[in-house]
Amino acid sequence: MSKNIFLTLFLIHYAFSAEVTAITEISIETKQNGYVLTLSCSSPVLEKNLTSWYAPATGWFYISILHATADSAKLSSKETEFPIMEIQASTEDSSAQIAIKSARYIEQSEFYYSTTPPEILASLRFPVMDLIADNEKSEILTAGTKPVSRNVMLLRKGLYFVGASLTVAGIIDQDHTEGFGWELPTGAGILIGTWLWEKHGH
Q1: Which of 54, 123, 138, 139 has the most crowded Cβ, counting Cβ within 10 A?
Q2: Residue 17, C-beta contacts closer than 8 angstroms, at least 6 positions apart
Q3: Backbone angles phi, psi at 9, to 5 degrees
Q4: What is the pTM of this model?
Q5: Which residue in 90, 97, 89, 105 sits closest to 35, CA to CA?
Q6: Is residue 71 in some structural domain?
Q7: What is the full DSSP assignment across 80-146?
Q8: What domain range is 89 assigned to?
Q9: Is residue 9 part of a domain?
Q10: 26 and 113: one domain?
């Protein structure tokens, strides 16, 4: 009889001594290689109390925190930006449940625990091959829009000025002499060549 009473008292003490953490805020920052997730807590969370898993078929990433509660209304109404599609939060069986839907595949996840301030930090990373593909696309898109140096810009302005001057001189000379002088075709050629260089030669 005394053993049963002792066991009951022990379980009651354990249940009430387990501090309940409130998940008060969530922030997600999208980086080139993945997401940086921050969960603000009312008190530090033990590593053993957190589990996570990813469902590739649906794109949902789940986080479950034992002895914790989540403000469902506040966290679930958090505004998101692509590729984050949706955030859902709830409290079930003394555990905070947080779900994040991502439009991009999450290959790896790592969690870090801070006591001051009490936070959970997570790194959710995209596949390496996706990053390589993104870099290749970026190089292709920027290949045709390389920045023009100041020296090139000055040279083009100079050529436009010389071409225009020769063209005007050729037109004026044509009024006083018969036939075409060398100035007009030369000036027109410089203008056309400089324009083609600017449009297609970068």
Answers
A1: 54
A2: none
A3: -65, -40
A4: 0.58
A5: 105
A6: yes
A7: --TTEEEEEEEEETTEEEEEEEESS---EEEEEEEETTEEEEEEEEPPHHHHHHHHHHHHHHHHT-P
A8: 20-127
A9: no
A10: yes
What gap in Å lies between CA 52 and CA 22, rounded to an integer? 18
pLDDT band at 128 (very low <50, low <70, confident <90, very high): confident
* Nearest residue to 37 (alpha-carbon basis) of 127, 124, 105, 95: 124
Task: Indicate which CATH number applies to the domain containing 45.
Answer: 2.60.40.790
Number of domains within the chain: 2
Give the angle subtended at the CA of 52 by the CAs of 48 and 35, to the nearest 5°: 115
* Structure tokens that stand for 51 in this block: 């589990």
Helix (H, G, I), strand (E, B) or coil at 29: strand
Interstrand relation of 21-31 and 34-41 (parallel, antiparallel or unpaired):
antiparallel
How far apart, in whole angstroms, are the C-alpha atoms of residue 158 and residue 191? Answer: 11
What confidence tens digit (pLDDT) does each residue in 85-117 have?
999 999 998 899 999 999 999 999 999 999 999
pLDDT digits (tens, 9 = 90+) for 141-151: 444 455 556 67
- The answer to whether the CB of 105 falls within 8 A of the CB of 130 is yes
Whether residue 117 is preceded by a cis peptide bond, meaning omega within 30 degrees of 0, is yes
Taking a C-beta distance cutoff of 8 angstroms, is the pair 99, 62 a contact? yes
